[in-house]
Amino acid sequence: MRSIAPSARAYILCVALAGAACAAPALTSHTQWGALGLLAGLYAGCEQASRCRVIGRRGPNGLGTFFPVLLAAVFLLPPAAAALAAAPGALLARVERRPRWVRKIWRAAQLAVAARVSAGVYGRLGGLDAVAAPDFPYALLPAGAAVVAFSAVLTVLDGGILATAERVPVRTAWRGLFLRSFAPVAVHGLAGLMMAVLWRSPYGPLSALLVLLPMGISCWVFAQYHRERAAHQATIRALVQAVDIKDRYTRGHSERVGHASVLIARELQMADERVESLRFAGILHDVGKLGVPTRLLRKDGPLTPEERRVIELHPEYGHEMVRGIGFLGEARAAILHHHERMDGSGYPYGLVGQQIPEFARVVAVADAFDAMTSTRSYRRGRPVAAALAELSKCAGSQFDPAMVAALQRALDRHGWHPAVTSDTAGVVPGPRPGASGVPAAPGAGTR
């Protein structure tokens, strides 16, 4: 545990002791060992078999969790026995990050505490009797309360480990954790409740296993989606890395433009699917530089008019490169048109105003903002306030005023904290303003 901060060690130890205290009474009371053993074994088996990140839950400890069986134990067993049922699965689960045993003990303790609290809430609201009756509509109330309690405990404990072990600021450690965890836990809770009802029915425990069949199929379907999405991300990374290698002076620029584009999109209340597509647009907006001769991108000194015309072909090169990548959607139009200007003086087609696709208008603002605020080998980056002032000055002629205003609001709310970019390490002295680097002001246009 030498790599773990002392505060995190103390926190994990406290949670481990709490988890042991929650499960210990099951060892000395009249526990239904048959039911406990079956549920604990089934939960451990599901943990080994299930590697789905979407149906399952992935917390800061890196473990994916399949909750229906564990929540069925909450609905069927006394609180201490439900806490004990979580331990074998968590301790036997595969952990990829080190220190592995510390992570396993932490997860086992966390789930034991969550199961103990949620089972207590469920029992106090009469859930055990409702399932045994069965009074299924009424059973939804205590089951729902138990799911809320389960998610709340996980949220509180996850936030604590983020603050102590991951050094996340305390004011933000818990932000958004409950909302992200509650939806999948609620789905798993409904499946666990159906398992509990069937378990207590005349058909017995074996019938409860039928609930896991559709969950397993769903897990497989979402796993296919996850693999496809991972392939998309790998494609994006490969293209961006190729651009970074070719044009080393803009290394990291693409990711920051993607981030700024997302800030603008969220401020404009775009749908999540469009936000993701716009992030791809920001990341890939300069992919066409792969078609530009490297000597022009790295040239020291001003470009000739002929050389500038060659560089100004990069949006069209980029559009051709990504034309066949279907998942990019609207992002392809942004790659082609992100150098258009509202007054029609941009390139490659001189579009005017609303003729310019919305995604391209967003990326144009994000691109110019990062170009001004990033530190290069030949100049220091501008302060955020100065860059925003310059964007506002050019709003209406070069940039869409709505996009500039959205970026301003987003930065007022979230701030701008990108990694500082300085591409001076290990390279020859960089170009002067107006050469192959970004210009000194957005009015000159970024390449």
TrEMBL record:
Coiled coil: none annotated. Residues 425-447 have a biased composition (Low complexity). The keyword Transmembrane helix applies. Residues 1-23 form the signal peptide. It is an enzyme of class 3 (hydrolase). Keywords: Hydrolase, Membrane, Signal, Transmembrane, Transmembrane helix. This is HD-GYP domain-containing protein.
